[in-house]
Amino acid sequence: MRDASDDGSYDLVLALGAGGLGDEGFTVAREGGTTTVTASGGRGLLYGLFHVVRLGEAAFTGAWALRTHRPALALRMLDHWDNVAVHPVMGQVERGYAGGSLFWDDGRARGDVERVRAYGRLLAACGINAVAVNNVNVHETEAHLLTDRIGEVALLADALRPYGIRTHLSVTFAAPVVLGGTATADPLDGAVRGWWSEATRRVYEAIPDFGGYVVKADSEGQPGPFAYGRSHADGANMLAAVLEPYGGTVHWRAFVYNHRQDWRDRTTDRARAAYDHFVPLDGAFAGNAVLQVKHGPMDFQVREPVSPLIGAMPRTRPAVELQVTQEYTGQQRHVCWLGPMWSEVLRFRPEDTSVGGLARGGLVAVSNVGDDPFWTGHPLAQANLYTFGRLAWRPDAEPGEVLDEWIGLTFPDAPARLADGLHAVLDGSWRSYEKYTAPLGVGFMVQPGHHYGPSVDGYEYSPWGTYHFADRDGIGVDRSVATGTGYAGQYGKPWSELYESPDTCPDELLLFFHHVPYGHVLKSGKTVIQHIYDTHFEGVEEVEEARAVWASLSGLMDPARHARVAERYEEQLRCAREWRDQVNSYFLRKSGVADARGRLIHL
Ligand code: GCW
Asked: By alpha-carbon position, which residue is closest to atom 2 of ligand 1?
């Protein structure tokens, strides 16, 4: 509050009052030279205050009538894939590209919680209200956070609480065996349930507002109910029951598929897996069990269709999971602002309602933050974090406006040249990235394991279920009902019909749904092969242009920040050229079809 006038009136008043706004809603009005934020409690006032910060000077200009703000989604959560003990392969943060963990260092919770507090404030400013503090792949050390090391989680929860953030924990389904010494983790076993119930009681003793458990079960080697012949509803409901007395929630992940597939087997389709596993369980999950579904059926590729599971479980509470950390989108060495992609996902309408409306369990994302001085490694990747939070608050927000908001807040007083330059390099960056990587929705083509840089056949003969089937005649995965894996039939109408035929399937998803000859003519009028060549040349040119724009902004911001981005543009350009050349050469060699424009492609 600033007291700026001689008559004792206030510029800004934060008032408790007015019911009906929920825990987090607020109103703002300006009258008689005073701006008033009203909410029913601390969280609402906090969000109201950050709203005033976003408005800047406009918050203190003129007079305007009362406006009401409420989050569209109650849960807006970041999952940290942070390990307590450095993992021999995955490091401190699995798929983390911003240094070490903010929470864990040297095998224990950080003693200095100042940075955690600052992080809480940053998240509140983005509108995020929940955090899971450890990796969903729960290794041995991390399993103990649930029991004997819950005190460390409580320290983090205490630091985050003042910013309206509830703390969640990833747990291993085998915890009773691993920690409690029981013979089984069977969810229907009385002793197992008793163990979880006692463990949960102790968690709430340490953290009274604890948010709940996140579980990756029967997925990529993690234990789960299948070992006991039980369903995932049995597993989730057992945990939901022990959390229920305290108001906690279990976030049960739907990322369940066969990761030991035989590439020769053309009947198994990884894209089908989540739907096939979970749709039969619709209606079986407890009210405080949320099914956390990745936004696409595969794994956070630069282009995927929206997961058909999200619209197919009317009697379940889905949460939609995005990946803010850029595992498959340039690993925070490339500029790739994902706002437009997420907005497309959230506005997609599997039925009468959009995905944003169907996400009754909330919007969740894998965090991109670490102990790097710029928080996100690449300073411009902060825009992804901010955009995620704002879209979780308002899934139908215009992403371009959110981007400008971020620019305004991060570079206050930026001259127009700087603001326009920042907008220019970020706005089209996702499409540029798509252009120089895997074409037309086919996905992967990344180097195995770490997933950075191109390797067209890197996953082609692997057990992971991610194939493109390129041969001398054509490329793509036939997922039609008529002749393919039947995946297209997992959608309701009109989508199932639209995706079924290559004539109606949108260009950008063509190779996800169909295997077509290189000469197949797209709706754009180009053949598939010419599209591949053109987009790969264009993608690199766009990175060259963005790099030049960035160079022109030198002198308009803190030099360290400018230099960090400039340095990453060099790497992005090197890598984009590598993608272009490997992809173009690969398809020229396979198809024997020359580039219509005669550009250099290495044979
Ligand atoms: O995207 C894949 C990642 C794994 C991750 C898994 C998941 C935490 O490559 O590193 O494991 O998804 O979402 O569980």
From this structure: 299
Dist. CA 293 → ligand 1 center (Å): 13
Q: Which ligand 1 atom is nearest residue 294's CA?
A: 13
What CA–CA distances, in Å, run from 509 to 255, 472, 479? Answer: 21, 21, 11
Instruction: Determine the longest span between alpha carbons in the chain, in angstroms.
Output: 82
Is 282 designated active site? no
Give the closest residue to 393 by CA, choosing from 33, 121, 62, 126: 126
Question: Is residue 331 within 8 Å of 99, Cβ to Cβ?
Answer: no
Q: How far is the CA of 512 from the centre of ligand 1 (A)?
A: 20
Alpha helices in 319-441 (DSSP H): 339-347, 355-358, 382-393, 399-410, 416-427, 429-436
Domain 2-69 and domain 76-410 have a common topology: no
314 by Cβ neighbours in 10 Å (0-12 / 13-18 / 19+) ranks as: exposed
Counting DSSP H helices and E strands in the chain, the numbers are 18, 18
Task: Find out whether the beta carbon of 218 lies less than 6 Å from any atom of ligand 1.
Answer: no
Fold for 2-69, please state it: Chitobiase; domain 2 (3.30.379)
Task: Output the six-digit token pair for 277.
Answer: 């596993």
Q: Identify which of 246, 237, 229, 224 has the alpha carbon closest to the alpha carbon of residue 168.
A: 246
Residue segments in the chain with a per-residue pLDDT below the cut of 70: 1-8
What's the pLDDT score for residue 355?
A: 96
Q: How far is the centre of ligand 1, averaged over its atoms, from the C-alpha of 98 (Å)?
A: 17
Please give the number of the atom of ligand 1 that sits closest to the Cα of 137.
8
> Is residue 81 within 6 Å of ligand 1 at its C-beta?
yes
Cβ(94) to ligand 1 under 6 A? yes
270 CB less than 6 Å from ligand 1?
no
CA distance 464 to 144: 30
Strands (DSSP E) found in 117-243: 130-132, 166-170, 212-215
Q: What are the sequence ranges of the domains in the chain?
A: 2-69, 76-410
Per-residue pLDDT tens over the stretch 428-442: 999 999 999 999 999
Using the Cα atoms of residue 319, residue 325, residue 330 and residue 336 in order, give the sign of their dihedral: positive
- Parallel/antiparallel/unpaired status of strands 317-323 and 249-253: unpaired
Query: Cβ contacts of residue 293 below 8 Å, gap of 6+?
Result: 254, 274, 307, 309, 310, 318, 319, 320, 321
- The one catalytic residue in 299, 304, 371, 595 is 299
| 398 among known catalytic residues | no
Q: Are 96 and 451 in contact (CB under 8 A)?
A: no
Please report, for residues 159, 211, 289, the alpha-carbon distance to residue 310 in angstroms, rounded to integers and kept in the order given.
34, 23, 15
The Å distance, Cα 546 to ligand 1 centre, comes to: 30
pLDDT (0 to 100) of residue 5: 52
Q: What is the pLDDT of residues 550-578, one digit of tens each?
A: 999 999 999 999 999 999 999 999 999 99
Q: Is the CB of 295 under 6 A from ligand 1?
A: no
Class of CATH domain 76-410: alpha beta
Where are the extended beta strands (E) located within 447-559? 474-475, 516-517
- Known active-site residue 220: yes
Q: Which residue has the tokens 């790099």?
A: 547
Residue of 107, 102, 99, 127 lying closest to 117 (CA atoms) = 102
**What DSSP designation does 113 have?**
-
